[in-house]
Amino acid sequence: MAPSQSESDRARLAAVAKGDQKAFSQLYDRLSGPLYSLALRMLGDAAEAPDALQDVFLQIWRRASAYDPAQSSVFSWAVLMTRSRVIDRLRARGRRSRVVVYQPGECNIHEAISPDASTEESAADTVGKNDEAARVRSILNQLPSDQREAIELAFFSDLTHHEIAQRLNQPLGTIKARIRRGLLRLKERIAV
Amino acid sequence: MIPEELQDQAALYALGALDPAETAVFEKALSDDASLRTLVRELRDASAALTHSVPLEIPPPELKRRILSSIALEKQEGSVAVSRKTSGIPVWLPWAIAALLLIFCGVLAVDRLTLRRELTDIVAADALAKMTIVTLTSPTPGHESSKVAVAWQPDQQSGMITVSGMEPAGPGRDYQLWAVDANHPDPINAGIIHIDPNGTARVRFRPDQKAMQIKAFAISLEREGGVPKREGPIVMIGNA
Questions:
Q1: DSSP symbols for chain A
Q2: From A70's CA, which of A133, B29, B145, B195 has a CA 20 to 30 Å away?
């Protein structure tokens, strides 16, 4: 039986921790697209996003041995690292992230993938990624809009829940409940 | 079952939406609770999936080459540094330095503890020095066996009254504490003192108005529920 994506990621990261550059290259091919998209979305700046991504992958190279599978998947670990590096940059810039709330149907994911992309990613990987992206979007679209809005604000910006409550002009308790319910629902549906 | 409030915190933590102080408190709870750690891991994975909701963009092709060159260089520098380290330096030297540092850290830790203890003593002594203790006695016959003491902290504007051997006020009556302050023409109400059936009371009080120059504390016998301005007879009084 073929290993799951998550198991493959762990195996690659374990190899990276031992200094395996080929495993690092494979991990880059697998993660760079989503992480770059995230950095771009949070920074809103195509000139800065590559530098942020470089910081992230150098950190992955240096800290691979510190990864703890009990705390998160490799993908979540890399996403956390990306958010952290991007937030550092946003703070250094002295301004908050420009938050763009995703509108369903605003982008065709097939068009978003450059046909001449020079990564070594396989076609099967790309198809798999697109399937996963479509599934997550579909799950997100099924969430009540107020829950989705609160979660997206928390995830794509450098805002605390107090600031989110202020921005959405809602009581703090309401925001906490929306985020909890939305994220728990997301967890249940993604796990299926 | 994880309480809802902790689930709220877990969701916010997974999204990085807690402020630094809340994060520190939550991480303490996290270190003590395995089921909470599992929930955080699952919520973290769920929140990371939000990344897939962003339209996929491909990084510039030269970026991968740049990163691979950087790590190759780092690896090379790392091996050079290791070979340099292992060539001329005695093997025991790093261990000796580490041991010395460890001893030094131990000395610093003991020193820090001592200083902290001294600081605590100074703070406690300072609080005591600022505290005023007043003993109240009965100006008229009838309450000679009562023992009443007030500990007053002007900087906190609060105090503690301790009563023993005092008869309860009786039906429709209450004892009321007053602070006599040089800056106020009338005594300041400091609250009702309920005496239990054993004749004792221990009440923390805070006068209605700021009292910076207290001359005396007094207890009067008033109507049940107390009065804004003293009406009844003074049963206990003591100068500050």
A1: -PPPHHHHHHHHHHHHHTT-HHHHHHHHHHHHHHHHHHHHHHH--TTTHHHHHHHHHHHHHHHGGG--TTT--HHHHHHHHHHHHHHHHHHHHTSPPPP----TTS--HHHHS-TT------HHHHHHHHHHHHHHHHHHHHS-HHHHHHHHHHHHSS--HHHHHHHHT--HHHHHHHHHHHHHHHHHHHH-
A2: A133
